[in-house]
Predict the 3D structure of the following.
Amino acid sequence: MKYIDEFQDPALARRLLDEIRATVTRPWALMEVCGGQTHTIIRHGIDQLLPDQVELIHGPGCPVCVTPLEVIDKALEIASRPEVIFCSFGDMLRVPGTGRDLFRVRSEGGDVRVVYSPLDALRIAQQNPDREVVFFGIGFETTAPPNAMTVYQARRLGIRNFSLLVSHVRVPPAIEAIMQSPSCRVQAFLAAGHVCSVMGVGEYPELAERFGVPIVVTGFEPLDILEGVRRTVAQLERGEHTVDNAYPRAVRPEGNPAALAMLEDVFEVTDRSWRGIGVIPGSGWRLSPRYRDYDAEYRFSVTGIDTREPAQCRSGEVLQGLLKPHECEAFDTICTPRTPLGATMVSSEGACAAYYLYRRLDMKKTAPVEASSVG
Amino acid sequence: MCLAVPGRVLEIEERDGTRMATVDFGGVVKEACLEYLPDLQVGEYAIVHVGFALQKLDEDSARQTLELFAQLGMLQEEFGDPWEMAAEAGGLPLPGSGEAAQEAQR
Amino acid sequence: MAETVETPTRGDVTASATPPSGIPPLDPTAWTCPAPLRDHPRIVMGHGGGGALSAELVQHIFAPAFGGEVLAQMGDSATVSLGGARLAFSTDSFVVRPLFFPGGSIGDLAVNGTLNDLAMSGARAAYLSCGFILEEGVELSVVARVADAFGTAARNAGVEVATGDTKVVEAGHGDGIFINTAGIGLIPAGVDLRPQRVVPGDVVIVSGAIGVHGVAIMSVREGLEFGVEIESDCAALGGLVEAMLAVTPDLHVLRDPTRGGLAASLNEIAAASGTGVVIQERHVPVPPPVANACAILGLDPMYVANEGKLVAFVPREHADAVLDAMRAHPLGGDAAVIGEVVDAHPGMVVARTGLGGTRVVDLPVGEQLPRIC
């Protein structure tokens, strides 16, 4: 695909890697915020190709992983109702709530459907006027505008049997929370490119200044990641900490004004609990009072849910970069992608699942493969 | 988060009062909502996420980025690429792999 | 991909079968076997997905209930001896939505799927059975089109439909048409295709572009529709296998990577043979429409279904000749060497990425789901 293939070119990747190698003089810990970036890094083996001094800490930017347990449990409860068609992005079906997931709800008779776009859910609502259609509105600033537009359209078209179960999260408050943690090791951030496509970069200079960390807006293809790392390491080595845009083809400083206006209309900022981390003030969006009629939490009063997170799960520490997944006692013992304890083992971007998939290899001591892995 | 891919706008139309586009992703054609990019024209590229075009892709900028990458480490090139030499020395040759590589890239 | 098992339930037992009445329901709290079914007290779609869940269902419910040495082979088809003849015997059930898709229909699929299972043991298929489960209300013209496609596919492969059965279920209890087929064929002398014969040094060859069938089906699936000029690769592979065996009967193992894709087949072979498999990712033939559809949906082509491709593990000394024979056959024109067998990381499949890194290609857990992140 044009503008993807060119940014996977192995020869150019080598040039970027050589440049990083030539620049780095001491160890640095970088956090890539976004789960999509984690996926690229692991999928292409980029972490193995970087010099040892560059450590990548996988951040909490996987919406599937950080959606709080109580919201998952609400989703499970609503999806179980006979009058409901529950629509969701595919990623969310396997995420464990308290004791079950959406797959299980479906096997028990719930009408749970995977859609590609929230607009598909709206169409299902139009086609099924006698059913209640609920869309699971999760995601970061990138996914919020599509969900906002869908609610806006529902109201404009007078589609009354549609509602949104909202658990949107925002990146900047999460960066702030990570930096304020006393045991924080993060020295720089690769910011999530597509979040900035929507939001612009205006929220970041203050964070870079306050915490003295470079923040480099980074794309998602292998060359984009390497360019983000290259620019970050260059700043760190020079002792600088500014906001830089390494993804200018998709990110303008001002973001997308039309999307920002829609977000302003449909959502309002709220405190949000992040699974495994806890409540981060001002880190979420919920529907504004004008759209309360479309809020599934109000339409379906869900009460009496007993929410329990498995005690052995240390995904919170993993999400904050305090613990490597394979250092957790449950990792690859009682917790596997097949039997996940926490959401980080579910999504293929989840730090634990990514480690499970790709790093078990290292633990099995695969010298012969590594030796021939160049080229 | 945020699996979004660049696609080229083939057609634009109004539907139910909403601006929608047919978008080509390298031979895969899907619909996308254009409400957030009201100025986007046929032939232009946009970053599409869950059926919504969220930002115009700046083709000049993409080209400049690639040119920048190509200029990195030009000096090394004159002495031969150490990666390629290492690959040739360390890689396991497979029967027919040369041809297979060409097949794969077709 | 949510609501359908896009490709047939493969193997000797179908994951989507309803348990016969009279069997007491499982009590999950009294269940003693380690973890597998406890968190899913009911069948979920992933049990039919060809991945880890399917394997556990067979391993924990069907295999212990049935027993038997033949079943323990757990191949795509069973090898049995009868009256001095070595026969391959296989059955397969087909639940596909939609019934007609670009490049084929459930009729072609039901014939070719079972024939390919036989072909993977090197057998020359001889006879097929067919069981049609029809849903009340399905149009006769639809049944006729499927039957016609079924008959044409069988004739093209030179196989006779020897016996059949029809049942009708009430409206709402089926998905239009379900088909079960079984087939038998004769295994030529000297041919012994089993994962246990795989040894380090073997060369891994794939017969052509991967992911084509799965993407063709997804493109017409409700809620996922996209336009793409691609047709299912659904085809009977018996002729290609004959051409390969004509080079040497000493092929080690063949698999047709259907549900779960190439990744599932390679993992099954690595696990059963106790060897490691290394794939050169850039040599795996992935056509651009497949790669791009996967990029949009967040899927990995290695996990997408095929219906007319095979993967072969071939002794190194025969690899070039077998590759040439495959490329000379109409169904193997794009055949490519994609990797080799090693003694490191036994049971694991590892891909060397285009950039020179490595990653583990794991057995898929259940259904492949589109990602947003």
User: Anything to note?
Assistant: The CA atoms of residues 298 and 372 of chain C lie 7 Å apart. Chain C touches chain B through 34 residues (CB under 8 Å). Chain C is about 25% helix and 20% strand. Chain C has two domains: 28-186, 195-360.
